[in-house]
Amino acid sequence: MSVALLVYILEMVRRRRLREEYSILWLFGSLVILILSVKRDWLARLSFSAGIAYPPSFLFLVGILFILLILIHFSIAISKLHQMNKRMAQELALLKESAEKGEGGGTLQP
Questions:
Q1: Residue 66 has what pLDDT?
Q2: SS3 110
Q3: Measured between alpha carbons, how far is 108 from 93 in angstroms, rounded to an integer?
Q4: Residue 30: CB partners within 8 Å, gap ≥ 6?
Q5: Cβ atoms of 108 and 99 closer than 8 Å
Q6: pLDDT digits (tens, 9 = 90+) for 47-105
Q7: Phi–psi pair at 31, nearest 5 degrees
């Protein structure tokens, strides 16, 4: 499953449907899950050190934490875009107002 996810992400980047900055998180997460799936002794040691008795549960925990990390990353990106959109709307409103008053020597074309 993790190999299929890895190949799918690489194909999305190649077709330019997924930007490189977002693909890094997905590639890192799928590589971690792939490595832990192949190296079962590493998974057993990590799950034992985390206090989890059933090693596949640790793999689900890693997946959930990875998804949480991606959600936080996207929330930050959306917040930045919201601020940029708000600032551009305010600047456009000021430009429109000054154009309607005749300041700046021209009219704003819709």
A1: 87
A2: coil
A3: 11
A4: 2, 5, 6, 9
A5: yes
A6: 999 999 998 899 889 889 988 988 998 999 999 999 999 999 999 999 999 999 887 55
A7: -65, -40
CB atoms under 10 Å from CB of 70, counted, come to 14
Model confidence pLDDT, tens digit, residues 4-44: 888 888 898 889 888 887 788 888 888 888 898 889 899 99
Specify the DSSP class assigned to residue 89: H
CA 55 to chain centre: 27
For residue 107, give the DSSP letter.
Answer: -
Instruction: Return the half-sphere exposure (C-beta side, CA atoms, 13 A cut-off) of residue 92.
Output: 8
Q: How far is CA 108 from the centre of its chain?
A: 37
Specify the long-range contacts of residues 89-96, CB closer than 8 Å, at least 24 apart: none
Q: Which residues of 18-39 are buried (b: 16+ CB within 10 A; e: fewer)?
A: beeebeeebbebbebbeebeee
The answer to whether the CB of 2 falls within 8 A of the CB of 34 is yes
Residue 31 has, within 13 A of its CA and on its CB side, a CA count of 7
